[in-house]
Amino acid sequence: MKAITYTEYGPPDVLVLKEVDKPVCGDDEVLIKIKATTATAGDCEIRRPDIPNLIWFFVRLYMGFRTPRKQVLGQELAGEIEAVGKNVETFKKGDQVFATTGIHFGAYADYICLPADGAIALKPANMSFAEAAAVPVSGNNALHFLRRAKIKPGEKVLIHAASGSIGTYAVQIAKYYGAEVTAVCGPTSLALITALGADKVIDYTTEDFTENGEKYDVIFDTIGRTAYGPSLQSLNKKGRYLLANPGLGQMFRSLWTSLTRDKTVMVAFAPDGSDHLAFLRELCEAGQLTTVIDSEYPLAQMAEAHRYVERRQKTGNLIITVA
To answer: Count of domains in the chain?
Structure first.
């Protein structure tokens, strides 16, 4: 089968299309013919590598210090089950599924074997493979943080970087929970984010949300780049500050803030799980969650896809078509 591999860390050009052995599923696994995957900022960080200081050692210990141990990247996918292990009863050949591989990676390929009891679920019936492939990581991250925030109907929620892969899902999920949503994004995305359900949009090139006098119950920074102190000042009493992809300083400050202030800072990595995927599927099939696709690249053009992601200009998700 074909797969995008890399045998050294570095720029996008280290990604090479190669023929590798097709996996054979074990007794408790399913073999999936991948139809679509994604190129994400997280994949690019691992490839370079560019890892937050606090977890740098542990990530490199797992991934390899000098050369990559996991030579096929990719953490989310949609596809069709081609074979099941003899102990598998939850899925059958021909099922269309979406899944996340978590820290095992491996989605930049024609096929992958995954545990049948892992983060895998039937694909939303109303979504294409391309649309479904982007939900397991970005959609799950948005759901995880907003669930932890325990949003109540009518609360004011600000989504920073609302036009990104996590942000576009976060706007929709916050609206599902009944929030009044303010979305921060660039000028070219204002109409799109409004169409996704945002009650108010802020163009970050002309307005700083921390200086407009507004207060929020929840601020969700989906990329970890908001100013920490000013963001806390923009929260109401008992407000929640959600930080995806936080820096080292933000991690340490979050502990102190949660202990000494009447506000809570939430820094966490979203767990993988089929229960989250099943809930996201329900939202998708109910028409309450859609995938925003910036562009699509074939598997063979993965290096160019990574270059595009690293320009930080995409809106929503960048899809890799495999089949």
So the answer is: 2
